[in-house]
Fold:
Amino acid sequence: MPTLTAGAALSNTSPALGVSLNGGFQDRTAEYIHDELHARCLVLDDGEKRIALVVCDACMIPTDLCEAAKHLTHEQTDLPIDRVLISATHTHSAPTLAGVFQSEPSEEYRDFLVLRIADGIRRAIHNLEPAKVAWGTIDEPGQVHNRRWRMKAGAIPADPFGAVTDSVRMNPPGGSADLLEPAGPTDPQIGVLAVNTLAGRPLALLANYSLHYVGDVGPGHVSADYFAAFADRLQQLLGADRLDPPFVGIMSNGTSGNINNINFREAAAGGGPPYTKIRGVAGIVAGRVHELYRQLEFRDAIRVDTRETRLTLGRRLPTPAEVDRARFVLAQARQPVLTTAEQVYARETVLMEKLPATEEVIVQALRIGDVGIAAIPCETFVETGLALKAESPLQPTFTISLANGYAGYLPTPEHHRLGGYETWRARSSFLAVDAEPQIRAAALGLLKSLA
Structure:
């Protein structure tokens, strides 16, 4: 088997100040760049097939933008578009790329990001050299908590549509006497794919952890959140600073649609100045990965491969009566910035009125040595990721969420029955109730085809 070659590169994707930052009900404007954003690119070539993985510091990247970057890369490098995986970290302090709540994208920044992703892949290809890889997993349970909670009777308020039917509450008050139990599990596992040169120089490391984001950034700050802080700390631990070409650390988002970093069993406590928690979480996770790294066995002859399929899924759309109610709510608001959840979701309802009844999504799977990677274009729930890990013939397997597009939250049918924020119909949650079983089955089928 031919020797593996690998190349990695960082492509700066920081925006101009003044762009929209999404991640909340109200829009925010970029006033300060705390840390640069990047497209973190890794290319692997086993002598027969070449694949590229790109993880971007973005909240979400819509399908048309991912497709544009892939087609541009193909034009420039001949790399087939179905051998490229592009995902978002889900930092909530990056420019808006898809319209959600009261944030709308800048077309100029969207075009810029397409160019920078393609540039990054080309640079990674330029950096290809003989390499060896290793993989493994290690657990870090202390940084992941299920954010959907069952509550005592009467403790869950009405949803934005006026109904009192939710059985769970997202992000409840910490330490509340009304808390009963989390509505689901967590996944403490960190998946790791390490890439070194044949001489042993660290070239890149791809990690995967099911943590939504951390988020203690400054007001108006552009930041890559803990994802980049992890890469920076890992670089220090590996002694990989200022290498030529530079070491590229990559943290991808796992199945964190219902997972965050808040322990709701405890009352909220002051966390110190901005970025205190980001650095703390990044340091702990990087320390665990470094611990694993020192035990890994590297190989220089492996197989890489990809598969993908496109699914046409149903979309949950508002009824005419729901649209009429939403228009009434907006008429009463009488202000340009909407301040309540009812108003924000009314706007979403109106914007969704004429959307198509179906949505096409790309489901992808990769094999790198013995590692299986499922790529899903949604904020995937942890139950889906755990099921894929348990059933995949490739071990270890992990899922990269928000990959190759953005199709909102992906609750399981059971979570749809429970209700709660992640199920509320909006441009951030619109797939039909049966979407998750279809996507999970497709991902598992692709993983099996690669075994």
Residues 318-349 form one domain. The chain has a mean pLDDT of 96. The radius of gyration is 21 Å. Residues 365 and 374 are 4 Å apart (CA to CA).
